[in-house]
Amino acid sequence: MLQQIPIDQLLLAVVTIVVGIGVAILYFWGANWLLDRVVSGGEGTGAAVIARDRMRTAIRPWIFLFPAIFFLTVYLVYPVFETLRLSFYDGSGREFVSLTNWLWALGNSGFQQSVLNNLQWLIIVPALSTGIGLLVAVLADRLWWGNIAKSLIFMPMAISFVGASVIWKFVYDYRGSENPQIGALNALVQALGGEPQAWITLPFWNNIFLMIILVWIQTGFAMVILSAALRGIPDETIEAARIDGANDVRIFFDIMIPQILPTILVVWTTITIVVLKVFDIVLAMTNGQWDTQVLANYMYDQMFRAAHFGHASVIALVIMIAVLPIMISNIRQASSEEGTR
Amino acid sequence: MTDQAIAAGPVAGKTNAPRRLHLNPGRITANIALLLLVLIWTLPTFGLLVSSLRDKDQLAVSGWWTALTTSQSSSATTLGTADDQVEENGQFVIAGNVFAAGETGMTLEKFGTSINDPGAYAPGESAEMRQGGQITVATTGDYRWVSDTAFTHSRARIFYVAAVTPRFTLDNYFEVLSSEGIARAFINSFTVTIPATIIPIMIAAFAAYALAWMQFPGRLFLVATMVGLIVVPLQMSLIPLLRMYNNIASVTGGDSKSYIGIWLAHTGFGLPLAIYLLRNYMAGLPREIMESARIDGASHFNTFTTMVLPLSFPALASFAIFQFLWVWNDLLVAIVFLGQTEDKMVLTGALRKLLGSRGDNWELLTSGAFISIIVPLIVFFSLQRYFVRGLLAGSVKGG
Known about the structure:
heterodimer
């Protein structure tokens, strides 16, 4: 195996890191130094000195910002507009076809099915993840082994979607109803007296089984955030309610939940964005067969298998439109916070 | 019931520290509920690990939970027919093994000639067969059926009780590493991830500082744009960038799918979150630090490089872990910008390919999957603190 080590590839990586850091240092230190030399404070009348100081202060932020702005424009801002433009062009991106692609999407059964499935995902996954995450947060904060429990439930966040798909495909494995089952779910069903099933092919229910994988991963995220939020509730509020005679369930629903409602919203919307982008799970488990197709996977399918850039762009835009409300609300929130600084 | 629980709580269990929340639907219920959830969450991964270490023949026929104990099973085998008999020294012999060809690790404990009593005889003992002659079965499953007269039957069965000893091995790992390209994919993943984690840091740090502490027109607009860009789906960037890379490659004569291409792409995709995290952290630093540095005559540049940057280390660490995990676990960007040739395929791509081509070889899939998740798990468990801190930054909104 030793001769397989690709020295040239590793060398390229190391050189790139060194060069990258070197270029960055050169740019930042160099540009700053240049600014100070060219627009120097130096001699001259008071007014001239102040004017030059002002110019330096005005230019410097842009030196700091330029590389970031460059990357963001090339890799994120320009593509958004370009994809929008390409949605009005044909499969190779050369011929203008106006609304043809959009009409195709509306009538295409794969697209319609994807939208329906995505709606199901959007309703079920954030709700389950947030709910279970909240439950775990509440339970774990009271028990001595809570931190270990939280760590274990959080762990799937570190696993790739493809890795999680392998893990759960193993759980869902089906061997034919006569044979001993090696998939945990079918073994459980068999032990309870039921018939083993090929779970990921069952209509409607297969979507649920795929969603469980994402819930498995995202619950840890919800749990961590909500646990921190719960700790932020002032004790006095709880104690006051207890003195007033409220029992635990009332305290939970009437006091704790309202206090952390903004955080619940943040968690919910963040998971919603992840759900809309989910592609690896469906690709690895079913590749859209048995009516499990989702938008992100369908876009990949149109982009590579069908090689139709127009269609793929439309699907990407639909995903973008779906996250637009969240994006606008986040921007609004950030603007109002920034305005008070 | 709840009132009794509240009354019983402080007495029955230890008194909680004042900062703990006193929700008490019964300590036992809580423990059981949490235990159940933790089991559901960890057993799938545990099953993967156990399976990846099992002998591949055993893995294909029995669930991983059976490997945790030596289990007994009763079974039956059809013995050889009259056509299989050979003549030895004036006697007629049918010989064979009760276990199937693929069954490894089986030890025969008892056998019998009747379905009502499969454990009547111990290994080595002789049993009378209805069809004539005596049969004896060894612990290895080898049987020898001897008769003084020729056999004439067409069907005969023997029953037995056997114990399966689970066999663990690292063979699956060796096989998947050497013959399925996983070793190369492992190196490729590192090659992609490390520069893609390091390069964005400096770019993001400078930009974050400017957005946090420098005054200039359009700052609000830029901050809002960063926040918005975090949400923009990756799918929006793929087609234009793919075309752009292809155009550049056709002009320069290079490869449109290169490591440099994916490093730059991951830098671009990771910057919004990086800048957002770092900016929030830097903005939270005490104003006095900036002001005292100002009074001492330091420029923004000096303040940043000598004070803010070192102080921001926790935030830098948080982002680095985020980015590392995200890039390591990514599939889409790797497929689009790096392709799926063997010298450039990353672990996620290799694993997905394995799912397609070797979907029934669970010994390869489980070991391959475990190799792909071991590095992120190590990073996660050793640096969990920073990961959690990164998640919390900006996510918790006070009441």
